[in-house]
Amino acid sequence: MGKRIVSFFETFIITAIFLVLIQTFMEDFSVLLDWTIPWRNYLLFAGLVFDIIFTIEFLFRMGFAIYRGKVKEYIFYKKGWIDFIASVPLLLFSSGPVVWTIITKAGILAGFSGNFFNILKVIKAIRIARILRLLRVLKIFKQIKHIDSKMVQRHIGKITALCISSLVFVLFIFTIFSNLSFFPSIGKDYRGKHKIAIETVLSKKLYLEKGRMDDFARYSDIIAIKRNGKKIYLKYDVNYYSDHFGFKNEDYSYFSLEESARIYNTRDNFEFFFDIRALHAGQAGENIMFFAIVIVMVFVILVYYSPHFAMTVTDPIHIMCRGIKESGYNFEVKIPDQYRDDDIFQLSELFNRVYLPLKDRNRRNEVPLELSIEDVDNILK
Prior knowledge:
Shape: elongated
Number of strands: 4
Helix content: 55-70%
Order of helices and strands: HHHHHHHHHEEHEHEHHH
Strand order of the largest sheet: 2-1-4-3
Oligomer: single chain
Distance between the termini: 54 Å
Strand content: 5-15%
Number of helices: 14
Radius of gyration: 31 Å
């Protein structure tokens, strides 16, 4: 009964991992194609559900490790650090705040709210850590030819973990630095253009004439203007705003000019709103590209490198071990010409040329062959 529960639990988690990878891809895909807010919200709520599931799983595994006194083994040898990075921070700093913002704010036309989203400008970069969960499903590939060896599984698992975690770490650091003031970024170019547009609108008082404002907005990203808290310009109709502009710093950016009285010799306070969907669509495209790179990298490691490692390391060892343990096993190790100088195949050459003939002579003489470590050392000499 206990094994069935464990098996069901593992199957459930593996299924959830595949689903959250699809959800992560679709979340960026929805931004790239400018899906409406309700559909994007469904994906964000799904992300929260998955983050809760994996956080509970991590806490359960950590609690079990503490109970058994094997915390170090779980964290370092069973990749518990991956379970942590791909669950708790995502729940606290990504999906949790995002869903909270969705629930507590009414939208762009209801006072153009959404200030809480400012804190996600850098922290949202950690959502790419969801792809680390892909490392958890490597064990389902045990049945694939050449990687049923524990040594291969451990070796391939470590290489894949190092590659993917390094890529995620580099992307995370780059994303953080790209938002700092001394680091050039496309986002800063957008902000510079937006400030120029604000100066043009205020200095020429374009907002006073809808026709002139429409002509200017056609070539800029301005989507709305408020003056002293009152909406004085809207580029689109109300329904379009509610369907396509739901998230500050994701769909639109906001500039408040409370100091406009000093700068532009007026007592009015202005608020400007800009369409930045194109900027984030480009970032979503980069995330999808990164996602694809990781998938291809894992596929190449599993399909190409793991059979290569098995053929050049574990298969020769497996054949030699069976040859030593089993009296009737007399297969020679196949030695590829291009790898003949490798240490493992030099040992295999000695196994084929020295040990197997010695074993065959002893078998014909019906004398039991018993080898010790010293005998193996003599063969190698």
